[in-house]
Write a structure and sequence with these properties.
Layout: H1 13-36, H2 43-63, H3 74-98, H4 106-129, E1 132-133, E2 136-137, H5 142-166, H6 173-192, H7 204-228, H8 236-263, E3 271-273, H9 309-318, H10 323-332, E4 343-346, E5 362-370, H11 377-387, E6 388-398, H12 401-411, H13 414-430, H14 437-445, H15 454-463, E7 466-474, E8 477-484, E9 499-505, E10 511-517, H16 528-534, H17 551-558, H18 566-571, E11 576-578, H19 585-588, H20 593-599, E12 605-607, H21 610-613, H22 618-634, H23 636-653
Parallel strand pairs: 4-5, 5-6, 11-12
Antiparallel strand pairs: 1-2, 3-4, 6-8, 7-8, 9-10
Helix pairs in contact: 1-2, 1-4, 2-3, 3-4, 4-6, 5-6, 5-8, 6-7, 7-8, 12-13, 22-23
Length: 659
Amino acid sequence: MKKGNYLEKESYYWLKILGDGIILLISFLTAYYFKRGHFRIEADFRVFFLSLTAIWFFSTVFSKKFMRIHVENYLLRIKPFLASGLTLTALVSFFVYAHGLYHLSRLIVYGTIAIFLLLEFCYLAVRTVMWKRSGRIKRVPFPVIFFLLELLMVISAFITVHYLHKGTVRMTDEYLVMLIGIFFTWLLISLLNHQFQIARQNNVIKMLVPFWRSELMIGGLIASFIFISNLAMFSRFIILGSLLSISLAENLVVLGYFFYFHLRGPEDEDTALFTAEVIEYQPIEVEKEPLTRLDRAYSFEGNRLAAGYLKSMLENVYLHHSPSLLEFIRETVDLESIDVTRSAVVFSPYLEQMEVLPDLGLQIFVNLHRVNDIRRINRSFIAVNHKLAHGGVFVCRAETVRQRLARMYRSYPLPLARFFHFLDFVANRVAPKLPFVKRIYFILSQGRNRVISFTEVMGRLFYCGFKVISWREIDGFIYFAMRKEKDPSTDTTPSYGPLFRQRRVGKDGGIIYIYKFRTMHPYAEYIQDYVHRQHQLADTGKIKNDFRVTYWGRFLRRFLLDELPMVLNWLKRDIKLVGVRPLSEAFFSTYPADFRAVRNRFKPGLIPPYYADMPASIEQVIESEKRYLERYEKKPLRTDVLYFFKVLNNLIFHHAKSS
C-alpha cells in the first residue's frame, strides 16, 4: 500500500478497537460510580450501555480514527478521534430522546463521553511523546503540552471559580453537566480555529488574535445557549468567571511562549541561508535517475562554487523527511550546477524573512510553507522574483481545492465532511472574493488557511514573472518548480471577483471591456498561452477540457448565464443587441487579414450569429459571421430581427449552448 494512504489500517487494528472499547467501559463505570457511589448497574443503564457500545462501534469504524496517518502529528491524530466523539455524542443524544429516557442521569450519559475523550487524548499524547525514531525518544512537541495544559486550565478554572462562589468543590449535577458542555465547546472551537498549533509571529498582538477570536466565539455560544434554554439557575459569576479565568490563563501561556521563542535567538529562525561557512556535510554521490516530466534537468552554467553541497544539505537536513520532494527537485534542477552561496530555503509565510536575502543574487529559492497561509500572495511572489537572478528557480507548494476536499473526506465521516466542506468553501473561498466581506475576512483570518485552486496558484506565479518548469503532487500537496522569466506584470487590477471585464476588439479596432460572470478560476487569463500549448483545441477554437473552468462555470456557460452582464455593455452602447462576437486581440489575430478589416467596420453584438447557425468548426464560425455581415450591410434591421428570433428558437427548442 502506498505510503500516506489514509485508508490503510494500523497494525493491530482490531486489537486497538478492543482497547478503545475497554476505555469506554472504564469511562462508563467511573461516571456511574461518581454519581451513584457503587457499581450495582441499574437495568436502564445496562440497556443504555449496550446501546452506547453499539453506537461507539459504529462511530469508531466510520470515523477511520484507527486508520494509518503517515505524519506523526498530535493535532492531526486528534481530529478523527474528535469527529468520532462528536458523532457519538449526537447519536447518543438522539437515542435518549427517541426512546424517551429522560430519567437517565445526564451526568452519567455525558460524563461517560467526556471521560472517554479525555482518556483517548491522553493515550494519543503518550503515544506521540513516546514515539521512537532512530533509537531515541523525540523532544515532546509543544502542541501536545499546550493541548494538555488547555484541558487542565478548563477544568481547574471552573472548579476554582465554583469554590470561590459556593465555598465547596462539590458540584450539583447541573454544574457538572455545564462543565462538560464548556469543555466540549472549548475543545471544538479551539480545534476548528487551529488554536493549539501556535503560529510564530514577530508581533505579540498577531499571535494573540486567533485566541481572542476563539474566546469570543466560545463565550458567545455558551451565553446564547444559556439564554435560549432559559437556564437562569446558573450563576453568572461562575460561568463568566470561569471563561475569563480560562482566557487569562491561555493568554499568559501564549505570552510566555512568545517571549521564550524570541529569547532563543536566531537559531530558531525559519529562514536558512546556505553559506560555505555553515556547511558540514560532504557531497553524496547519487546515481542520476531518469526524468519523468522533463526532457532534461534545468541547470545553470558558469560558477560551480562548492558543487554538490546544496544537494547534500537538502538530502541530509532540509528534505530528509520527504524523499519524494527531494526526488522532484533533483529531477527538476541540476543541483550540482547551483552555487551553494546563492541558494535559500525558507519555511515562512512572512515577507520579513526575505529582506535579508540579496536582490537579484539567488539561483534557487525554496519555500516549504503552504501558499494557502500567505497573507499577500502576489507581494510574496514578487519579492521572490526580485531576489532571484534571471533564470533562477522558485520552488513552492500549495494545497489545492481538490486536495483539500480529499483531505476532509479522509479525516471525517461523510456527513461531517460535507458539512465542513460547505462551511470551509463559504468562509475561505467565497468570502475573500466579495468586495466588502473580504476586508473582514483578512482582518479575522490574517490570510491563513485560504482555499486556493491549482489554476490560481499557477496564474499568480505567471503574473509575478515566472514560467513553469514542472509540477508534481506529493503527499497531498502540489509542488511547483518555476523559472524567473521576466519582471512581474504591471497590471494593477488582475481579475479576481465574480464579475470581471475582458479586453476585446470593438468597432474600428478600438478596445472595449466586456463584462462577464467569472466561469474560470482567478488569474486563469495569465496562463492562456501555457494552456494552449498543453491542450488540444476543439473545432470551434476553444480549449478542450479546460481545467481552468470551474464546475459552476460549466453550468453558467451551458445556459449562457455567464454572458448576462454584457447587457451593461449594450446599455453603454459598446455593443449592439445582435452582432458578431467581441473577440480578444490574440484570437482576433488568427482571423484572415481581409476579414479582420471587414469585421472592424461593424460594432460587435450581445447575441452573435453563432447561436443562429451553430457552426462546428472555426472555419464555419468565420463563414457564419461573413454571411451575417453581408446580410446586415444590405438590410440591417431585418437581418437583426431574423437572427434574433432564430437564436431564440435555437436556445429554447434546440438547447443551444455556449461553446
